[in-house]
Every structure is written in C-alpha cells, then in structure tokens.
C-alpha cells in the first residue's frame, strides 16, 4: 500500500503503481481524509490516520508492505501501531518518523515551522511554490515542478500542529514487533541539510536493524524515476 504525503492524493503514485502492478504486485493507493481538494480544513491529524486504518480494515488487508512518503511516514507509523498484525513491513520514503509526543511542526527547521503560525486555519496550509520547486523538485526543471505543484491542495493546519501519539509505535519498533525500512533519495533536500535533514535523522529512530536503501532522485522521485523507485520499494519491503 502506497500512502501519499502532504498536499497530494493517491494519484501521485500512478506511474510507480503501474510498474509494480506490471510486475505482479497488488497495489493500493488510497487518498486519506483531508487530502482531497474541498475536504474540510477543520479535520485533525487523527482523521487522516483513521481513514488509513479504516481502509486496511474495510479491505481486510493483511501481510501489507505499508509505504509512507513525506508526512505519510507519520500516518503509517500510527496506523501500524493500531493494526500491527496486518503489517508485514513499514517503508518510509523520504518520510517523517516523528519522535514520541512530537507534532510534525516540531520536526521542521524553525524558519519553516513559522509558516504554520502565519497560516489562516480556515484556508489550510500549502507550502509556497518556490519552496517546493527549489527544495523538493531540485533535480527537475521548472516546468516539471509546476506540473507537480498544480496537483497540490492545502491541508488542515492541525495535520502539522497536533501532538502525535507515537509511544506504541516506538515501543513496537524497539521490541521488534514492527519491522521498518528507510528509503533515502540522495538528492532530497525537502528538509534542508544540517540539523533538520530527513536522513539520517529519521532513519536512526527506526533502530539499529532498520533496512536503509539509497537511490538517485529527490523528494518527488515517484514522478521522474518511477521504475527505479518501484524496484527499490520491492527490495525495501521483501523478507
């Protein structure tokens, strides 16, 4: 199951899902609550997680390789803690692995976190195009970045500011009750280099036995390297 990140829907996975299905894999690409354009901006972070766990239960899925991109890492971590017996392995792709008791906003550099204080909750939050273009689409030309940005829509501000209940997730990771991989596109600067960089900071929170894979590409690697990403996700999720 491929879980999108911020501002996106399950459509972001079209190319990668097509490659995986062509190789015989069953692939689900749900769109979580709050991510469809027109969804209410009053939703809480827990509503997105509930829609993911609901999808797992409604489709009676088991032995799932659950992949989360970007803030999708927070979604899959909480969903796996609520339904661990359905999960074969978690795969974090350029993804947040928040600390216990943190909000996603706590994981951003202070200059980025300031965006949330300047946002009107009624309008939701969407990063400005220059941030997406220069930091998340840094290995693409401006035209490709513009196409990606056109697919984005605002998210409820609470998706970033709600404190997350991740104690059970971290306990399961520490005890071996959940197994995880981290996939790092080596040109990903969506969070800038330094103290707040995604890698290796988030991978280290998955414990010493986390499987780490690195591939060429940037934050939106699924748009310009779908075949390479599909192959890497299979390696990340296998026994």
Residue stretches low in confidence (pLDDT < 50, at least 5 long) are none
Profile the largest sheet.
Answer: 5 strands, parallel
Strand proportion, as a percent range, falls in 5-15%
How much helix is in the residues? 25-40%
Give the strand line-up of the largest sheet: 1-2-3-4-5
- How far apart are the termini? 16 Å
* Coarse shape: globular
Number of helices: 11
Mean pLDDT: 97
Q: What is the CA-atom radius of gyration, in angstroms?
A: 16 Å
Give the strand tally: 5
Order of helices and strands: EHHEHEHHHHHEHEHH
Structural class, by secondary structure, is alpha/beta
Secondary structure: elements and pairs:
Elements lengths: L1 E2 L10 H9 L22 H14 L5 E6 L2 H11 L4 E7 L16 H8 L11 H8 L5 H9 L7 H4 L5 H9 L4 E6 L15 H4 L6 E5 L5 H4 L1 H12 L2
Parallel strand pairs: 1-2, 2-3, 3-4, 4-5
Helix pairs in contact: 1-11, 2-3
What key attributes describe this structure?
single chain; 239 residues; alpha/beta; 5-stranded parallel beta sheet; globular
Structure report:
- By secondary structure, the protein is of the alpha/beta class.
- The protein is 38% helix and 11% strand.
- It has 11 helices and 5 strands, in the order E-H-H-E-H-E-H-H-H-H-H-E-H-E-H-H.
- It has a 5-stranded parallel beta sheet with strand order 1-2-3-4-5, with helices on both faces.
- Strand 2, helix 3 (72-82) and strand 3 (87-93) form a beta-alpha-beta unit.
- Helix 1 (14-22) packs across helix 11 (226-237) and helix 2 crosses helix 3.
- The protein is globular.
- 44% of the residues are buried.
- The mean pLDDT is 97.
